[in-house]
Amino acid sequence: MTPSRSVRTALQATGWLVAAAWALSFPLFSSLEPHRLWGWCAAAGYLCAAALAVRRPRAAVTAALLGAVAVPLLWLVLTGRGQSEVMVVERSGRLLLETGRMYVDRPAAVDEYTPYLPGMAALGIPHTVLGRLGDARIWCAAVLFGGMWAGRRLLGGARSPLLPVLVASPVVALPLAVSGVDLPLAGLCCLALAAAAAGRPVLAGAALAGACALKWTALPAVAVAVALLAACRGGRAAVRCAAVAVLGTAALVLPSALLQPAETVRQVFAFPTGRAEVPTPASSPLPGHLLAELGTWGWWLTVALLAVGGLAVALSLAVRPPRTLVAAADRLAIGLTLAFLLAPAGRFGYLALPVLLVVWARSVTAPGFSRIVAGSAGQYVRSGAEAKSANA
């Protein structure tokens, strides 16, 4: 074994051990049963992966996937257990299918709130039709993997060993098993950025419309994809993407919003930002939440900081637009991280989305080439100083 390979193997084994330690913190400190179960299963998988990493790195990834994803997801689906978000999505799908309205009128308890848009309710419909085989987590995962796979195909990237490691990591494995509601948004953002990088404005706009119909936190992805297209394919392509995204989002969201305008405002906007009658459970001690806890002035200060952060990212897109997939993913990750950190209410788990975007973009970019475009004509160039400059 060469010295470089020995170092790489040691790093991989150490990474799996760190993941195992992190997973073990859930059965030791969490009061949520699905998280505790995931922690035991994942820790076993990660420890096996660490033991196998020295001589069989591929088998190590397989062990991690089995322990952190397959076993806990299958067990939780078959036993009907998971975070409350799963039940909320499935209930909204049932209401949408049976009544055409996805929100509970005048919700009195936290579990009666649905802080999502109609696209998320659509992912809950299979449960009404198929029972446990239609568990919302399965369909959320399908959108995630479908978006990542389609994005890689668009760019012609080779299979990367980094992607299975990403899926097996706690960043993706935990939400995949216990909740899954943020994963389809990530998959559609990956597809939208890949389509923009490949010069496919209509497809990019359609993916963005799907993402924005899930949660309004997908809106920053529209600005990044449009900026990427404007820099690489010209203004007409950017306008086409923006038009498809806006019109598609309106077509998917407006019918539900017009049927229940008051509930849309209360549950989709007021509840996630801590302004509803019932406090949101998204209360991790992030900077924005800590400020909002100081009172009304603190809440307005977080809103002002959010606006400043959004303006800063928008200015960066105008002054120095991204010209590669990696640069676009990095810029979107920065914007989302600022939004999650400064929001009046949030969870540490939300930060998995920007991490996933950054890692996925690098996993699908071929090591020898970097897609950059000058003017309106696309071309591939060898990665080097020029590609690094374009990626900045």
From TrEMBL:
It is a multi-pass membrane protein. Its main location: membrane. GO terms for molecular function: hexosyltransferase activity. It is found in: Cell membrane. The keyword Flavoprotein does not apply. The chain crosses the membrane at residues 35-54, 61-78, 167-196, 202-230, 237-259, 297-320, 332-361. InterPro entries: GT87. GO terms for cellular component: plasma membrane. Keywords: Cell membrane, Membrane, Transferase, Transmembrane, Transmembrane helix. Belongs to the glycosyltransferase 87 family. This is Glycosyltransferase 87 family protein. It comes from Streptomyces sp. R33.
